[in-house]
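Worked example

This section walks through a single chain of length 230. The input is the sequence exactly as stored; nothing has been trimmed or padded.
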Amino acid sequence: VVCLKYGNKYGPEYVNKLHSMVSRNLTLDHEFICFTENTSGINKDIKTQPLPSDLGLTGWWFKPLFFNPDLIPDSSILYLDLDLIIFRNIDNLFAYKPEKFCIIRDFNRYVIKNYSKFNSSVFRLESGQQSQVYYEFMKNSQSISRRFAGDQDWIRHAVKTNYEYWPDEWIQSYKWEMRNKPRMTKDSSGRRNWHEPGEPVIKPETSIAVFHGDPNPSTCIDPWCKKHWG
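Given that input, the structure is written out below as tokens.
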């Protein structure tokens, strides 16, 4: 199980809490690794690996590196973004379609039927699978990072076959699918949050809530988030 922390967008508490949520909700034998350029504040029992500093990359543009066959050889790799809440068992993310690269069907599925773009908040691959994502990116990373809006657009462009979407019900957008786009307001700093707290609608099959944009797990005013994030 791997995650990525770069810069100051998310503090070390996001890594620590993700590790805790994985530990509670994954019963399979596993290793948790955070790839980061700054280990300050990360719990000492969490394994860390450095990010390369000579590639001129920032933020999500480190994600193609997880497709490097030599990064973690001979392993099943489950990538998790930091801004999500795991609240039920996720063993099925390793058991599902083991021969395929698995990723989220982007959350615009909420409004567009049969939407076919990727969301890279949660994906799984075997070492060496879809390695063209890494090799082609490394040939011209600066040009690709300028041409594509984000890593998931590049991954979608590079992955043509042998992929599978997670069942939509397993991993849901907290803002759109679980809270049905509630009314939002801005605070004095310009950060958006719900106009008032509420409760999410949770499908029986859902185990992960993904946060994109505002609010994020640490700022969301819903009591459910305060209870389950950590």
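What to look for: Residues 12-25 form the longest helix (14 residues).
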